[in-house]
Amino acid sequence: MAKIFVITYSMYGHINAMAESVVKGLKKAGAEVGRYQIAETLSDEVLAKMHAPPKADFPIITPEDLPKADGFIFGFPTRYGGAPAQVRAFFDATGGLWSSKALAGKPAGFFFSTGSQHGGQEATVLTSLPFLAHHGIIYVPFGYAHPSLLDNSEIVGGSAWGAGTVVNGDGSRLPSQKELEIAEAQGESFAQVAKKLAAK
């Protein structure tokens, strides 16, 4: 059984909603799941002005936790086509793991959210791949493994790079049923890959 950490940064809850479906898919495939969140770097005063709700009750991930997992799925919103500062700060703290090659050969995937259909979902993954490459982490794309990724009858986030949701600029749109199903399918698919790698 592969142990997979689902690690998120979610300010308004959209990513955490997607993560629930990712976890469901991982467990369906028999993976052991650890659920973590990335530490907030903004002050309570700033978060209040942004009308951010209280954080979810998940443990804060530390770099020292990462070697305990066989693989990781990271979920976070895009910021100008890249990872938020909080995610970057977390990876900036993993230098010790890099020097010891503690994460080399482990698989990782991404899921994400944007405010619009053209908000940079694929760019967010592309600009996050260096985090993985420098550690020797194996990126696992989702591919077009779910039929809803080819559905043009309505707004559907996600792509071959991973599951995604489009939340509107004001955050008013919640993940759709199709987006949640894609996230679940990604979790299941990722677990199968991680299981094969963990067995070697």
UniProtKB/TrEMBL annotation:
A molecular-function term among this protein's GO annotations: FMN binding
Domain (Flavodoxin-like): residue spans on this chain: 4-190
Listed InterPro entries: Flavodoxin/NO_synth, Flavoprotein-like_sf, Flavoprotein_WrbA-like, FMN_Rdtase-like_dom
Gene Ontology CC: membrane
Highest taxon, organism lineage: Eukaryota
UniProt similarity note: Belongs to the WrbA family.
Protein name, UniProt field: Flavodoxin-like domain-containing protein
Lineage: Eukaryota, Fungi, Fungi incertae sedis, Zoopagomycota, Kickxellomycotina
